[in-house]
Amino acid sequence: MAEAFTLRVYRPADEPAVAALWREVFADDPPRNDPVRDARRSHAAQPELFFVAESDGQVVATCMGGFDGHRGWVHKLAVHPSRRRQGIAAALMEHLERALDARGCPKLNLQVRGSNAEVIAFYRRLGYAEEDRVSLGKVLASAPE
Predict the structure, then answer these.
(1) Nearest 5°: CA angle at 131, between 125 and 136?
(2) What is the C-alpha separation between 142 and 45, in angstroms, rounded?
(3) Which of helix, strand or coil describes residue 73?
(4) Which end of the chain has the smaller Cβ count within 10 Å, N or C?
């Protein structure tokens, strides 16, 4: 039987646990994606859209959202490997969707690496569909490393 979990807003005291989770789940992230800095940036920008799932006092999953007034975004949906397939990721996504909908967000976007078939299938099960878009990015020279 899956252990119970609760969803709540991220707190700065969660930083070490969140950073450790992201280092494990996103081990192939580029060095510029420092988990401590990423958590601090998200918490500073929109703390009300940064969620964790907790079980027995331990952070077992995260989900960061953003809303710029036009579109919502999902970032860093991460579930500890030992807690996957227990409904935590789906619960976090539903929680974020409700929070964004309450703010008037008309559409939610996310990006998944094309090679990550398992995660793409997960999002499809939640009702997300691939769109004909090209994802472009640029690392800004002034962004701290």
Answers:
(1) 120
(2) 18
(3) strand
(4) N
Q: Within 13 Å and on the Cβ side, how many CA atoms surround 77? A: 24
Question: pLDDT digits over 82-120, tens only?
Answer: 999 999 999 999 999 999 999 999 999 999 988 899 999
Q: Is the pLDDT of residue 72 over 60?
A: yes
**Paired tokens of 104:** 């008037």
C-alpha to C-alpha distance for 129 and 126, rounded to whole angstroms: 9
Looking up tokens 């420092």 gives: 34
- Token pair listed for 87: 């409904």
List Cα–Cα distances, 101 to 96, 105, 111, in angstroms: 8, 5, 19
3-class SS of residue 9: strand
